[in-house]
Write a structure and sequence with these properties.
Two copies of one chain form a homodimer. Chain A has helices at 12-17, 19-25, 65-75, 84-91, 109-114, 117-121, 126-133, 153-173, 189-201, 225-234, 264-278, 281-284, 294-297, 299-309, 324-330, 342-352, 368-377, 382-396, and strands at residues 56-62, 138-143, 178-180, 208-211, 238-241, 290-292, 332-335, 357-358. By secondary structure, chain A is of the alpha/beta class. The longest helix of chain A is centred in the middle third of the chain and has 21 residues, at 153-173. The first copy, chain A, is globular, with a radius of gyration of 21 Å.
């Protein structure tokens, strides 16, 4: 276990001792690194967009008809799974809803959700046209939530294999336009590990995706450690994507449709990451790389308090050997999916460093054009923009240039 | 219901259309408002601390011996209340733990928690000395979590009355050093409303405190609306302080001591606020003022996504008439308790405006000296520092100067 240099990470002690560093923290680029006037956003009101900026979107959802059908079938069994609320809208909408997306107000999430399925199932028509129209070079594809984690073991394994094969095929047909993350069934650990190996060694995929909890269990639990060990050994990142809160935390999210992207996804996924940190998962697997979306599910904003309250040895029962913020320097990378906020992006660059941030659209759940406009026009230095738009994704997901 | 001007609030549309505004968003003070060179933190590396800065700490905990004894008594009944983990450490620690706080590492939250009780019970000795030594003018006192919300109705009412009387007495003895928030028992709504009226009209307190859920119910529920109506009518703010997650969301927080300040408090309290927003509570009570600590429980960081996914009419079952961010301009004020991070503070100033942020220590759970150093030395303009350190608290809590 070796420590990386903690560059740019603001700790309370260093922050309070070093006033110029504090001042720099609010700046862009950091004040003490500004050398040329044209790099100072406060003398130059805006950077021009980079011409021909290469853009790899890193949280782009797809599905296959067989899984869509299996999800629809699962509704017949009922159940209290909080994901069902949105899944039913997507996979089993009322007949009246099966219209085009035209004339749907952006505020009307209910109706726009009902129009998602065709976009999820399409890989080479509408999607490529949308990418072309918006100057998006590549989608890093991943099987959409909740993936195959909701099925019984043998069906889950079969569907994971099918989805991964289908993914590899489309990448092979469009190697410059698509990369992809493999799915596996955490509910069957030995099979999951084998499928993970196949994903990298045979299918040449770029990493893995898991949709938070599996049957209400989280990856910090020892039963799942072989999966984390495999990701580390295969040297590919694991994207921990949201799903609705697990049954044991679901109650307050059952009103007002709080379970989804508006709030439940973030609460669920951040809880998942913190369980991993505080069970010492990143100490046991020091080279494990995890990716989280939605501007890090707001965890970068919590780092000061997490470090203060969650320092090693603070509470009996915690096993983290380092401060939580240190794992954001070594093991965790965030994406901008669903948070097209220049201010939040600037905060994260200053807090965790530009090398730990990747751009994403969250297609088809977010519209492409504003996400592209965000990364093309946000006040970033040319180096920052290039890294966030594509460079970091190429490095972290081993995407061939 | 009248709309306030949405100053400084970054919406996606305005952000993407106005590049100079985006650039300004990362700046301090906002770029377009910089008039004099000495106001620009990027030409002046640091502001000197303001001489004799007036400081009102706004989330400062106390307890009374009768409630401490009642909490200890409650442990005998057992129960799964997730607050019990930390309450037992404070109110019923092992005999070996009852030592001084000397030589306790700041990282050792377990042992420092065990030494909290004497500081909570003291109002005029150690506390005033700590304030004097650290140049703190005033504590806005509030009965510490979980207050009287864990007791049965009649006991809760009696203890609320007792705590409020005790609070009013100490304020009367030290009117320049203490202000205070009144407690009430949400589990008995009619009595709560009466006690709220007494707190303001007779005891001249400055607002109210509630510790998130009461018997697993949240203030968005119609049964509690008379309490919100009373706070609005009495024209005093309601501080919604954390407690551990309610039973219905507790399960994933039962490991690694996730239930407390490290994470559970924030998840619980943010969920509470969002339930209020999405049930339209701030539309029904447009003048209700709510205060939340811990840098707004990270909700300011979520505002872009909350606005996108939670716009009015987005989902059936939601009743918010405005975007979530708009309530942060009209109904919600945050404090800095437990988050002494200049970067997070800068983010919040740019996102929700300096008038909506108040300084806090979170005594005795956080040490005073670093909290004071934070507000004295953070890179703030003189006006920002004055407002956050005391000015906003004087306005919002009607504290006499």
């Amino acid at each position: 276990m070796k420590a990386r240099p903690k560059k740019k990470l603001m700790t309370r002690r260093s922050a309070l001792k070093n006033l110029s560093a504090i001042t720099a923290a609010a700046a862009f680029p950091p004040f003490h690194l500004i050398s040329a006037p044209e790099e100072n956003p406060f003398t130059h009101k805006a950077y021009p967009p980079v011409e021909g900026l290469r853009k790899i979107a890193t949280e782009e959802a797809f599905n296959i008809p067989e899984i869509a059908a299996a999800i629809k079938e699962l509704f017949k069994e009922g159940g209290s799974n909080l994901d069902n609320l949105v899944l039913k809208q997507i996979y089993d909408p009322p007949a009246s809803a099966l219209t085009s997306t035209a004339n749907i107000s952006p505020a009307d999430r209910d109706r726009s959700t009902q129009a998602m399925l065709s976009k999820l199932l399409d890989l080479e028509n509408t999607r490529l046209a949308d990418m072309d129209a918006n100057r998006v070079d590549m989608h890093l594809l991943s099987l959409t939530m909740p993936g195959i984690q909701i099925f019984e073991k043998s069906k889950a394994n079969d569907l994971a294999t099918l989805a991964n094969n289908r993914l590899a095929e489309v990448i092979q047909r469009h190697p410059a336009r698509f990369a992809g993350l493999g799915s596996f069934a955490p509910q069957d650990v030995p099979s999951a590990v084998k499928e993970m190996q196949r994903c990298i060694q045979q299918l040449k995929l770029n990493g893995f995706i898991v949709n938070s909890h599996t049957n209400n269990a989280y990856l910090d639990e020892e039963q799942f450690w072989p999966i984390l060990e495999a990701a580390e050994a295969l040297d590919r990142p694991l994207y921990i994507h949201p799903r609705a809160p697990s049954d044991g935390m679901a109650a307050p999210f059952r009103n007002y449709r709080l379970e989804g992207a508006v709030w439940g996804y973030g609460a669920e996924t951040a809880t998942h990451i913190l369980r991993m940190i505080f069970n010492g998962v990143f100490d046991r697997f020091p080279n494990l790389q995890v990716v989280i979306g939605h501007m890090g599910e707001a965890l970068p904003f919590w780092l000061w308090r997490l470090d203060f309250m969650g320092a090693p040895g603070a509470r009996a029962g915690r096993k983290n050997a380092r401060k939580p913020s240190e794992y954001f320097q070594r093991n965790i990378t965030i994406t901008t999916s669903g948070v097209e906020d220049p201010l939040a992006l600037r905060y994260c660059i200053e807090k965790i460093g530009v090398d730990r941030i990747m751009w994403a659209i969250d297609y088809p759940y977010q519209p492409t054009a504003p996400a592209v406009s965000f990364i093309e026009t946000a006040p970033l230095s040319p180096i920052e923009r290039t890294k966030i738009a594509a460079g970091n994704a190429e490095r972290i997901f081993r995407i061939k240039v």
